[in-house]
Specification:
heterodimer, A: mainly alpha, two-stranded antiparallel sheet, 35 helices, 6 strands, about 55% helix, B: alpha/beta, three-stranded antiparallel sheet, 13 helices, globular
Chain lengths: ~675, ~400
């Protein structure tokens, strides 16, 4: 019999056969009446809900939602805490950094700043064998870099009058360097070769030993050798080996992998959609310095717990989060009249040290560090997080808000710092924000401003219109946004209530909203993998696909976040990218992604006694249309693909081999790359 | 120029018609070029990401305080390629010296953004959106520059090109724009001169889509793919005197030249080059800055030579998010500053001149006592290219909120 997880597909197959007696040859013609004709049919309601509240329906999801009742299913999604997600948790288990505190992350996967501190003797070298090896490898790298800098500084540049115009002057050392590197690589490969056949525990010991003897060993290895070394090691050991090469990358990769796996496999799909929504709303860029390791806790402790909670709690949590304080520079913002700016000492030694530094390097402040007010956060807080750009604030408000938030800083951002309010950096005195007088009272001023902003009608409107843009349409009906904003204000920014208002509004279910949204690259990639029941053992290749499609995870540099509107994502290179991704995915050529459509969907390999090739291909097409698109395909697309079924390149049929099955991968790829699949 | 050029074009158009295997759009493009007013003007924008040190790129060697403030990283007067007795090029820019002498290279010094942020990403964002200080702008100015302009007669597919993996901010927006990482990979279902069955099927599907955006973009896409296959830009080898250096930037410009030479109707194009953020050991005549500057200058010179006659209709503008501190820092490098230098080169450019007002480098003249002050808004430089070269007079749409009072006149 078939494995348990194949049942949904079989259910569809069976029900089709039961209803029609056979698989309809041209499915498109038998469609239910277009939703534009009036109300959505029940199956369309289920599909619509799935398309909006999840990262895309999986096989059998429509039926499951129908069985449960659309309203009950939505209610269940609104209470994710009651949904069992243990299967996902098991998949996330090897990604250990997702559960580590920032402090632990920094200690296990040291950033350059920590390595420098160890090199300067300000921080102790860890004694734990694995950590020790990682630190030693990074220390070696750091010292090499320092040495190079020293050399560069010592060679006095010679003014050269005879620079050859238009000609490259290759550095004489370049060729030698290349040779040396190749030699080093060969040696490193030779060193680890004896380790490959050892059992995991012994191999791990050998790896650490080899790394201590020659710290560059693992940076030099070829990718496939590294992979061989990882075979059979447990999660922690694998992380250690990878960290010997690049500790920071381990943290970033696990974060991205975790996000991809959640989107693919979480049963709490609405929570994941909202997590993604708020991460984008309160955008923080993974590529900005310390945010490489601050983002893990940011998503886990700041965004996800509040994703369906109260907006004000979410806003406050972001305001105090090291990730945001660092990203928008508020941790550096100093009140111009603060003790800090006036050089009034807290304790002797610190200030003395600062003065010495300042004398030695008159430009110590040249990078703008801790030199005064930084308006970055104050502006984005109102423009992007709360009121919206037309929310009725002035430049004066921006400056005043920046003054309010001076002193909201953190300790040692590069060493995993935590939020702290530093009275010495705080601008004294009253401030006026949006017409409110904020009495000078330290940290509490910020809380007061956040409270005002969180409950401001402009905020309600701005946030609700963004939500409606994500869930309903690029230009959501004003009446819907107004209704949601009313709920927002009445229920003190209760996000769950706002969503409920939206999901029960006629505009959400209007025919105009049906399949009206173009998927973002993230939605496209994840929905394709979900629709085709892909088994993802390594999410990184999919993560990299998103980079190709222009939407790297956590990779939006400006604080605006990614656009949710179609015109940002529909362009030529993006469409080609989607088509190519669809073909690659469906043909099972993405590493780490197992996709066996034939087996998964019990598509029969035709044997000698099967029907002629044509109807066989058409059956396959009809089935795949049901599986991948819930049958929602235009007659034109159907006929276009059907017309191709005879093409030998699609069928992979050779002249002497007429019984070859249709190329399921090619047909599925065409469907996933079709215009219909680009929408939700 | 115009008469000889038209004769040349007419002759080449006829030559094109005479050969049998030329795709029709190519003849259209060549024929169309004969008619007055339809010649394809193009603007190429180059971004030096990371804040290039303009003071060591176009050196104010007549400014005593320049040498006083940069004891170890200055470009000695005898090493500078003198331009006008006051300014001179960094020696690594020797490949561009000929362009200056032919008056096809103009320089705008002390240009920059009125927004004083010293954050790389904010400043880049503002220069690409064209709205300094306003984050909420969704599209880029180079995209908006196309809005009121007629598309080239043959096709809009290649109007706006970015060389790189994704569409940069500067080209985001309403008008169709292509991001091409590698022109050889711009296809679906495999390479080769003929479209594959897969590509044909996709094309038919998108052609029939009722979604207007997918339909329209699909059409553009497959037009572009087919045009590219037919034009086979790979066959336009670099000209003999186009010596592109190794590296991504040189490759980008080489591919852009191929697209332009294939007459694909490029109106605006964008490429970028990183590696300018030299806080430590910047070097002087040799060193980190010299290396990247050499790659930059060689690439631009090669591009210019490669374009040949087509350079007559091309203007190239370079920019970087902000300049660097007037003084060197404690690490023989420079920190984030304010004003910078922009280069403009092209056939119609009245070069051989440094434009803009020099603010001086004395203590009282520096911005916040540390940076070169901005005397020319970067939009003034770009706006002139948009209005006078591309012929788009609606500058209010390209740079909203910026009423350019006058232009520098580098385009006459």
């Amino acid at each position: 019999m078939f494995a348990h997880r194949h049942q949904p597909a079989i259910a569809i197959l069976l029900s089709l056969v039961l209803i029609t007696g056979t698989v309809p040859p041209v499915f498109g013609k038998k469609k239910e009446p277009s939703p534009l004709a009036g109300r959505m049919a029940d199956s369309q309601r289920a599909l619509h809900a799935l398309n909006r509240l999840t990262f895309g329906p999986r096989v059998g999801d429509v039926q499951r939602v129908l069985d449960m009742g659309v309203e009950r299913w939505i209610e269940a999604q609104l209470h994710p805490e009651k949904l069992d997600d243990s299967a996902l948790e098991a998949r996330l288990a090897p990604l250990r950094t997702l559960r580590m505190s920032t402090r632990e992350i920094v200690e296990d996967f040291p950033p350059p700043e920590l390595i420098r501190a160890v090199a300067d003797g300000k921080q102790a070298m860890p004694s734990d064998a694995a950590r020790h090896a990682i630190y030693m490898a990074q220390l070696e790298r750091y010292e090499k870099r320092q040495q190079k800098k020293q050399e560069a500084a010592n060679t006095t540049p010679v003014p050269s009058m005879e620079t050859q115009p238009g000609k490259m002057t290759p550095s004489p050392a370049a060729g030698d360097e290349e040779l040396t590197r190749r030699q080093e690589r060969l040696e490193a490969e030779a060193r680890v070769k004896p380790l490959l056949d050892l059992p995991p525990e012994q191999r791990m010991k050998g790896i650490l030993q080899a790394s201590l003897e020659n710290p560059r060993t693992f940076a030099l290895l070829r990718g496939d050798t590294r992979e061989q070394l990882l075979q059979g090691l447990d999660a922690k050991q694998q992380e250690t080996v990878l960290a010997l090469n690049n500790p920071q990358q381990v943290v970033a990769d696990e974060l991205m992998e975790g996000k991809m796996l959640r989107a693919l496999y979480s049963e709490r799909q609405l929570l994941e959609v909202m997590d993604d929504f708020w991460l984008n709303h309160f955008n923080v860029f993974l590529g900005k310095g310390a945010d490489r390791y601050l983002l893990t806790a940011y998503e886990r402790e700041v965004i996800r717990p509040h994703a369906l909670g109260k907006f004000e709690d979410l806003l406050l949590a972001t305001a105090k989060s090291p990730a945001m304080l660092f990203y928008l520079d508020n941790w550096l913002s100093v009140g111009p009249n603060s003790d800090f700016a006036n050089g009034i000492p807290r304790r002797g030694p610190r200030v003395k040290q600062r003065r010495t530094v300042a004398r030695k390097r008159p430009q110590a402040n040249a990078k703008g560090k801790r030199s005064g007010l930084n308006e970055n956060y104050g502006r984005e807080l109102m423009e992007l997080h709360t009121l919206g750009v037309n929310g009725g604030y002035s430049q004066k408000d921006v400056t005043e808000v920046a003054r309010v938030f001076t002193g909201w800083t953190m300790k040692q951002p590069h060493l995993g710092g935590e939020f702290q309010f530093d009275e010495r950096m705080h601008e004294p005195g009253d401030k006026i924000v949006l017409g409110h007088r904020i009495k000078g009272k330290g940290e509490k001023e910020g809380l007061e401003v956040l409270h005002i902003l969180a409950r401001h009608p402009a905020t309600a409107h701005f946030v609700c219109s963004k939500l409606a843009q994500r869930f309903v349409s690029d230009d959501p009906p004003r009446v819907l946004v107004d209704r949601m904003a009313q709920t927002f204000l009445k229920k003190n920014g209760d996000i769950r209530e706002v969503l409920r208002t939206m999901f029960t509004s006629p505009e959400f279910w209007a025919p105009e909203a049906y399949r009206a949204k173009v998927k973002t690259p993230l939605e496209f990639v994840v929905s394709a993998a979900r629709a085709s029941n892909a088994e993802v053992s390594d999410a990184m290749p999919l993560v990299r696909q998103l980079q190709n499609l222009g939407m790297p995870l956590y990779g939006m540099q400006p604080p605006t976040g990614y656009s949710m509107k179609a015109d940002a994502w529909v362009n030529s290179s993006a469409l080609l990218g989607r088509m190519n991704f669809a073909m690659t995915l469906a043909s099972g050529k993405i590493k780490g992604v197992k996709l066996d459509l034939t087996q998964t969907f019990a598509l029969k390999e035709p044997s000698q006694d099967t029907a002629p090739q044509v109807s066989n291909s058409e059956q396959t097409l009809a089935l795949l249309e049901n599986i991948l698109l819930a049958g929602e395909i235009s007659p034109q697309t159907h006929q276009t693909i059907a017309a191709q079924l005879e093409d030998p390149k699609i069928t992979q049929r050779k002249l002497d081999d007429p019984a070859r099955p249709p190329n399921i991968g090619a047909i599925a790829g065409l469907l996933l790359g079709s215009p219909e699949f680009q929408k939700r | 120029m115009s008469i000889t050029r038209r004769v040349f074009l007419r002759n080449s158009a006829l030559a094109v018609v005479g050969t049998a295997v030329v795709p029709p759009f190519l003849t259209r493009a060549a024929l169309g070029a004969v008619e007055p007013g339809t010649r394809n003007k193009r603007l190429v924008v180059i971004f030096q990401r990371g804040a290039a040190d303009g003071l060591n790129i176009v050196v104010p060697h007549g400014e005593p305080s320049y040498y006083a403030m940069r004891p170890s990283i200055n470009i000695p007067r005898k090493a500078v390629l003198d331009l006008d007795g006051f300014f001179g090029l960094h020696p690594a820019m020797a490949p561009l010296q000929a362009l200056w002498q032919q008056q096809h290279l103009a320089i705008v010094h002390a240009a920059g953004s009125p927004d004083t942020t010293r954050s790389h990403f904010d400043a880049q964002d503002y220069m690409e959106s064209g709205t300094p200080g306003i984050k909420a702008t969704e599209d880029g100015w180079l995209n908006r520059a196309l809005k009121d302009m007629p598309a080239p007669a043959d096709s809009a597919a290649f109007r706006a090109i970015a060389l790189g993996p994704s569409l940069p901010r500067i080209l985001a927006g309403h008008e169709a724009a292509l991001a091409m990482n590698n022109i050889n990979d711009f296809t679906v279902g495999g390479r080769g001169a003929k479209p594959t069955p897969i590509a044909n099927t996709f094309e038919a599907m998108y052609a029939q889509s009722v979604d207007t955006m997918l339909h329209g973009t699909g059409q553009e896409t497959f037009d572009a793919v087919k045009m590219l296959k037919a034009a086979d830009p790979a066959k336009y080898r670099p000209a003999a005197n186009a010596d592109y250096p190794k590296g991504r930037f040189g490759d980008s410009l080489k591919q852009l030249a191929q697209l332009i030479k294939a007459q694909l109707g490029v109106q605006v194009a964008f490429a970028d080059i990183g590696g300018w953020d030299h806080h430590v050991n910047e070097g002087n005549t040799q060193g980190q800055l010299a290396n990247v500057l050499r790659e930059f200058s060689q690439s631009l010179a090669a591009f210019w030579n490669d374009l040949g006659d087509l350079a007559e209709d091309t203007v190239v503008v370079t920019m970087s998010e902000f300049g660097r501190t007037a003084r060197e820092n404690g690490n023989r490098g420079t920190d984030h500053g304010h004003a910078n230098v922009m280069l403009v080169m092209g056939g119609p450019v009245q070069g051989g001149k440094v434009y803009g007002r020099w603010p001086g480098m004395e203590a009282g003249q520096l911005y916040e006592g540390r940076d070169l002050a901005v005397t020319t808004d970067f939009r003034e430089v770009l706006g002139e290219a948009v209005v006078r070269h591309l012929g788009n007079a609606n500058l209010q749409n390209v740079f909203p909120g910026y009423g350019a009072p006058h232009f520098l006149g580098y385009l006459g």
